[in-house]
Amino acid sequence: MSDAIEVRAVSKTFLESDAAAGSGILAIRHADLRVGRGEFVSLLGPSGCGKSTLLDIIGGLEAPSAGQVIVEGETIRGPSRKMAMVFQPMSVFPWRTTLENVAFGLELRGVGRTERERTAREMIELVGLTGFEQKYPSQLSGGMNQRVAIARALALDPDILLMDEPFGALDEQTRRLMGLELLRIWDRARKTIVFVTHSIEEAIQLSDRILLMSARPSVIREEIPVPLPRPRSIESLTSDTAKDIERRIWRALMEEVGGATGAP
Amino acid sequence: MVVKAPLAWRVPAIQLAFIACVFVALSLSSRLLPILPSASDVILAGVKLLGWREAYRHFGITAGEALAGFVIGTVLGIAVGAAVGASRTATEVLNPIILAIYAVPKIIFLPLLMMIFGVGFAPKVANAAMHAFFPIMLNSLVGMREVDRIHIKVAQSMSASRLHIARKVFLPAMVLPVFAGVRLGLGLAFMGALLAELFESKAGVGYMVIQSYTAGEIAGMLAIIAVVFALILAMNAGMQRVENWLSRWRRA
Predict the structure, then answer these.
(1) Which of A217, A257, B120, B186 has the fewest Cβ atoms within 10 angstroms?
(2) Is the pTM of this model over 0.90?
(3) Is residue B27 part of a domain?
(4) What number is the ipTM of this complex?
(5) Are residues A138 and B158, on separate chains, in Cβ contact within 8 Å?
């Protein structure tokens, strides 16, 4: 199986405006990763560890300081039509209705009104928001707005979805349910997904593989496969396999912070 | 929802009561200070004013000055605010200067405007424009700076061009902050036109006020002020309706 995404020796240094010339902050050090077609991979790490920066680099929004990103055999030099990004719920446009939000990307591509609304309605149905086409984001819950954001990305029919802590602002229950919902959509739409999160449980619930990132300068320190059967349910997280994975992640995180406290 | 229905009549009822209080106060004070007209004098003067053809010409002139100044102030205000707001450096360099000028009463520039524009219509328009310009420019500048980064990022991730981002992210995001400035600017344009007329004029509402005052017709003067007040109330109500429509997506 060929890779959908290949990240080769990517480093990122941010220049600090008031620092001495030539100095900078090393955000990511030599990241290497591969994501197979149709795979669901999570980038898991503490806040501020550079996982979102790495996602931006994969998405072509940021240029790497060194190394390269190859998507479906092509080197990334800017945003690509093969990928679409999903951000936090607040990323929906408050002045657009559900239908207008979902059709946004197609509007940018110059797709005619009839066609883009037809596609938008299909996507709205896929994420389970039929009946809310004419509602504004202020009239929807956080979880519903996140469905809008997902539909907006799916409307562009990308091969790959890059998701940057999409459920981070939601409460725990909504977050779990949205996770299952995402798995259902993923199962129907058959996309490759790279999912950035700081929630261990969320990473285990969703992923085929978890890439554990360390704090700055960020490196991918461990790759953890998640051999839980699919389709997954709420019970998946309470299985022994899930508990083992969680323990393994905690052990790695404890080593990271100094190891003195020991794993729970 | 239960509170809303009584509120709908409670507010205008209190407002009417307030106006009644003003009339009572006016009649009482006219007894204590015979120089002041009684409320009935003011009402009579008002009726006379509304029946006087020439008055409409004066109101028309002031409205013309204010609206011309408002249009100029709006166009320049949005253009300058958006241009400065587009650059962080420009904002940081100019912000203290803009805020300092903002705090200065703009009427102080009237002699300068009269030197440049002479007398008559033009300096009043210029003064109205000057008054309208600042709140519109400041709101446009702040609106520009406060466009949500995440919305720009969404558009960029979809390969939006700069023009697309300007039209489909910045433009809709700025409608409300800019309109808040426009609303202030409209009121201030009328203030600017009137103030300029009070200093030098041969026509307009300010001219009428000064004429009534010098003629000792205080009831007539108060009647003019009352009409101005009523016009501003109507104008604000109109602007409020526009704002409600523009912010329809905000209401849950």
Answers:
(1) A257
(2) no
(3) no
(4) 0.90
(5) no
